[in-house]
Design brief:
The protein is α+β, with helices and mostly antiparallel strands. It is built from two helices and five strands.
Amino acid sequence: MELVAPTPRVILEESQEDTNNERRIVDLEGVEEERELARRRSQRYQKRMTRAYAQAVRLRAFTERQLVLRTAEHVRRNLLRPSKFAPKWEGPYIIREAHDSGYYYFTKEDGIVLTEPINGKWLKQYYT
């Protein structure tokens, strides 16, 4: 003969089972609303970041025969400088060819033609 006497914990769980099921259903119904709120927050955040980036980034467009400075090799490659007094900019150079893709070809002021192109993000205008 087997005698089963439920413990107080089992009795409590059985009585709360219906309320737990109702809570789960309510939680599941609220999941879609929470996802929608999170999606809207994410979109607002992305718009703010896009706006901040657009304000910080300045489009640099140079024309042919314009004088520019280019960043030094150690700055472009993120290497240690030869000394703390080493210049960060080289030049001035004259733009020989300007491409729509943002790459430029140079000549030095003494007429020496440089064959390697450089991206416009490594340039800045030279003011005489």
